[in-house]
Amino acid sequence: MSLRLDQIVADIRRNGGITLNVTTGKPRTTGWAVSPYKDREEKFQALTINRLASYLSRHGVLLAQPHHYLGAWFNEEDGFTYLDVSIVVSTPADALEVATKHDQLAVFHLDTCTTIPTPELRRKLA
Predict the structure, then answer these.
(1) Chain centroid offset of residue 14 CA
(2) CB of 114 closer than 8 Å to CB of 120
(3) Residue 68 CB neighbour total at 10 angstroms
(4) 19, containing H or E segment
(5) Is 20 exposed, middle or buried (0-12, 13-18, 19+ CB in 10 A)?
(6) What pTM was computed for the model?
(7) Angle, alpha carbons 71-75-78 (nearest 5°)
(8) CA 126/CA 124 separation, integer angstroms
(9) Half-sphere exposure of residue 49, counting CA atoms within 13 Å on the CB side?
(10) Is the distance from CB of 102 to CB of 36 less than 8 angstroms?
(11) Do the beta carbons of residue 101 and residue 93 sit within 8 Å?
(12) Distances (CA, A) of 67 to 87, 100, 116
């Protein structure tokens, strides 16, 4: 599958983020996205096609693994676009477990397109 990097960058800009299977080229739209790979997180003041291509090249082997996704989101607070390697779990409890273990500030509920800070999710599940 050949990815249209220009389209991915445009989708990230238009939607504020994406959870994308880079093997199939299809976005994931259900579940709880969270990254167990804090060391693969990178941020860009301006995401370009070349920067996305470079990120995919550096992390392509991991992104090609089953159930792994390119995670991207625009953080309005700092003005940066973040890229990471995410997994999708089926429950908020599983998302909280992964987020806590891997020092993630938040998880993303794909069904509602909502970012939920880890401390808030912890309170909701208590």
Answers:
(1) 15
(2) no
(3) 21
(4) strand 17-21
(5) buried
(6) 0.92
(7) 140
(8) 6
(9) 6
(10) yes
(11) no
(12) 6, 20, 21
- pLDDT tens by residue, 88-111: 999 999 999 999 999 999 999 999
Backbone angles phi, psi at 87, to 5 degrees: -120, 165
What φ, ψ does residue 29 adopt, rounded to 5°?
-125, 0
**CB of 56 closer than 8 Å to CB of 9:** no
Which single residue is written with the structure tokens 């509920």? Answer: 109
Q: What is the 3-state secondary structure (H, E, C) of 76-107?
A: CCCCEEEEEEEEEECCHHHHHHHHHHCCCCEE
Q: pLDDT per residue over 46-71, tens digit each?
A: 999 999 999 999 999 999 999 999 99
Q: How many CB atoms lie within 10 A of CB 111?
A: 9
Q: For residue 92, how far is the Cα from the chain centroid? A: 16
**Token pair recorded at residue 31:** 């579940």
In 3D space, the residue among 102, 90, 99, 89 whose CA is nearest the CA of residue 120 turns out to be: 99
Alpha-carbon distance 121 to 126, whole Å? Answer: 9
* Amino acid found at 44: F
Tokens standing for 23? 């093997």
